[in-house]
Structure formats: structure tokens, C-alpha cells
Amino acid sequence: MGLPEAFITKYEHLLGDEADAFFKSFDQPSTGGFRVNPMRTTPSDLDLSDPVPYSQWGYYGKVAGHSLDHQSGAVYSQEPSAMFVGEVAAPKPGQRVLDLCASPGGKSTHLGSFLQGSGLLVSNEIMGKRAKVLAENTERFGLTNTLVLNEDPTSIAKTFPVYFDQVLVDAPCSGEGMFRKDPDAMSYWTPDYPIACANRQREILSEAVKVLKPGGELIYSTCTFAPEEDEQMIAWLLATYPAFEIVPIAKTAGIIDGKPEWADGNPELAGTARLFPHLMRGEGHFVAKLRLKTAIGTTKKERLQKGNLSRDQQQLFSDFADEYLTIAPDKRQLLTFGDQLYLMPENIPSLQKLKVVRPGLHLGTFKKNRFEPSYALALALPTFKFELTISEDDWQKVVHGDTITVDELPIQKGWVRLICKQQPVAFGKVVGRTIKNFFPKGLRFNVH
Ligand SMILES: C[S@@+](CC[C@H](N)C(=O)[O-])C[C@H]1O[C@@H](n2cnc3c(N)ncnc32)[C@H](O)[C@@H]1O
């Protein structure tokens, strides 16, 4: 691989004897991986023969994008070194967690697996188009207790001061760990690029620190090897905010200690983690975990977001819930944005001043005199009153947007959840013997 000259000189100097093995690793194929979704039945035909040693849900291998396992959210494709970040965070059920730089959602879906539908996950992405992709991925994975926002870190810090148990900053970086997977990433690289990225990372971190509660944890990660963005960033953080202490990360499978000598020599920096492609099976990452002893942000009196359904909307939704749902959602958590209905997580601050992509689980749309359930709801519910198992051929028709015809139906008329090989696919509407297609237009695809 044609690595930039200045990159070679820099890492020859930093890595010494090890540099050759590091450079050679760029000529090897990139390592693929996927995580299974613990809230779904694990597909019996998935190849789980090669587990990622540090990840309870991770495996080496590849899952096709246009497959049932991917579409239904039974798996999430993620490069194995990126999986280490979620495992270091490992939030506990019930905690409040912020993923500040979250799109496309690899880490958010992983954090969601730890939270098991409890607590709160705020998944934020600053770029509008990327925030939409993030929302689609959290929905595909069936996450329920999640707010998806499209904000800058300053607004997030203003809305959620001293609020979270954990914040993940998976920072925008010079992406040196992406060179193998995406050689185009090399074209952005100049010797000054890590310095420019570090400036932006300091700005992001200066806001991120304000949202943590005392005792809360900051997880900082990059997919680059540049010391300016890695150990030096943590050295800067500790010098600027002495209320933080490093929580040493346990290492296995070729993951090594951070390098104090690449920053200010503080031996505690060895508690951070480096993932190098010539030492472990992955593309490369840096991860640090820090605990905050006393709050940096200033608490404000929280104004909570209230539910806002009109009487008519309440009636339409409760008619639907009585007929079809096996669990009744709490009315106080129902929130409309225009004609869209959401189930917001409990006790969240007012969302009024924020760019909200999803204020919780999208339940559906109010149409004239009826309620139409959403695709996100089909993928999030553990059970639905009327379920219909379809063949893989019919699954292909559904994701393509076609109607299907079946002989035996669980109801004469109305909503059914379509299931294929135990995975939720979408809602369909029974009309006679055909099932009308409600697979979202923007997500349809042709399998072949
Ligand atoms: C490394 S990527 C995140 C990957 C994601 N965490 C995952 O695991 O799928 C960094 C993200 O930070 C976003 N970003 C860029 N500039 C930012 C800024 N100034 N503040 C916050 N996020 C920013 C980028 O758009 C990008 O989506």
C-alpha cells in the first residue's frame, strides 16, 4: 500500500524496530466482524465459529447488507477493534449514557445491548444526513430507550448538564486505522492533519466533560494511531481537568498499553489501550476510560419533557394498542411531533430547543381516523398479538416492496407482524388473502 512518505518517517521514528511489521500489516486484507443482537434470537445459520475474545457478542466474519440477518437487526456489522470500545464502556442497565459522535451507530447499538432497553441512551450526530442513518440503524437494532439527536456538542452540554453516568466520545479523527479498509482515507492525510483533528477533539471534549455526573465515566476513542489525538489528548484532559482520573483498561488478545512516552511521560497513561493491526486481529483503535471525581458542569433545574397527545389521538392509539399490543405503553410517555407518535424515554429534559431526529421509539403515524404502526415498532416489540411466519422467498418480496399472498392467516383483516426465521421483518396489513406491503419505501432493496 502506498503509505504517505511523512507517515512512514513518523512511525519509523515512533515504533523503531516494530515499524516494519506495522507497515506490512497495511498490505494484509482488512478484518471484518459482526455483533449479534442479544435482544433477538441468534440466527441458527450464522457462522459463529470464530468469536472475538474480548466481546461477548462479537465474531470475526462478514454478514451481507442485503440479508435477513442484517435487515431484521439480528446482527450489526462492525470491525473487531471498534468492538473493544463498547466493551470498555459496558454501561449497566438503567444508566444514562451519551454517545456524542455516534453515526453510523456501531458503538450506540453496542451500548444499547448493554442497557437492555432500560435507562437512557442519547445518540447524537452533528451531521444531518449521518444523523438520519444513525436513526435507521438504532431502529433496525430495535433500540427503544433511545433519543437520536442532530446537535453540536455545545447544545448537548447546555441541555444535559451533570446528567449522564457515562459519555462516549468516539471522536472524528485522522482515521489512520481506516487506511486498510478505505484507502481513500489516506488522501486526506498530511503531517498536519492529526494536529487539526486534535484541535477539534479538544473542543468536543471541553463540552463533553460538562454532561457527566460525579463518579461518571468518560470513554474516549479514536481509530487513529497519532499520539497527538490519543495519549497526548488524554494528557491534555488530565492537565486541564484534574477532577478526572484514568481507569486502567484490562487488555487481552494483543491489545497493548497506551504509551506514556508518546505524551508527557505520565505512567498512568499506560492504563489506556492501543489496538495495532500488526499485534491483534483488527484495523486499529485507541481507547481511554476516565472517571470524574467532582462535577465540572453546573446543574440547572430540569424542565421535563411532557407528553402531548390530544384526546382524539389518545383514543385512536388506545384502540390500536387494545387490539394489537401485548404490553400497554405508559400514556405519560406518548409524544407527538406533527402526526408522528413516539414513546419517549422516562424523565428526559425538555427537547424544545434541540434538533431531534427521534424523540424515542417511533410508534407510528396518525392518519385520518386511524393509527398506522411504524417499521421501527415492528422491529422493537418483543411480541405482537398477530404474527405470521413467512418463507425466505416471501421475505425477498416484502423487502422489495411487493404484496404477498398466503393461505393461512392469523386474522381476517388488520395488522400482522411478519416474521422470517424467527426474526421480525415488518408489519403487513391483511386484506382478503393478500398482505399489503408496509416495508418503508426508502429502505427497499432487491436481494439479487
Ligand atoms: C468516528 S465517527 C463515529 C463512529 C460511530 N461512533 C460508530 O461507532 O459508528 C465520528 C463522528 O463524529 C462526527 N463529528 C464531526 N465533527 C464533529 C464535531 N465537531 N462534534 C461532534 N461530532 C462531530 C462525524 O460526523 C462522525 O460521524
TrEMBL record:
Active site residues according to the UniProt entry: 223 (nucleophile)
SUPFAM superfamilies: S-adenosyl-L-methionine-dependent methyltransferases (SSF53335)
A Gene Ontology BP annotation from the UniProt entry: RNA methylation
Domain SAM-dependent MTase RsmB/NOP-type: 1-293
Secretion signal span: none
Keyword terms, alphabetized: Cytoplasm, Methyltransferase, RNA-binding, S-adenosyl-L-methionine, Transferase
Annotated residues for binding of S-adenosyl-L-methionine: 125, 152, 170
Zinc-finger recorded as keyword: no
InterPro entries for the chain: Methyltr_RsmF_N, MeTrfase_RsmB-F_NOP2_cat, MeTrfase_RsmB-F_NOP2_dom, Nol1_Nop2_Fmu_2, RCMT, RsmF_methylt_CI, SAM-dependent_MTases_sf
Alphabetized GO MF terms: RNA binding; RNA methyltransferase activity
Family the entry assigns: Belongs to the class I-like SAM-binding methyltransferase superfamily. RsmB/NOP family.
Name the record gives this protein: tRNA and rRNA cytosine-C5-methylase
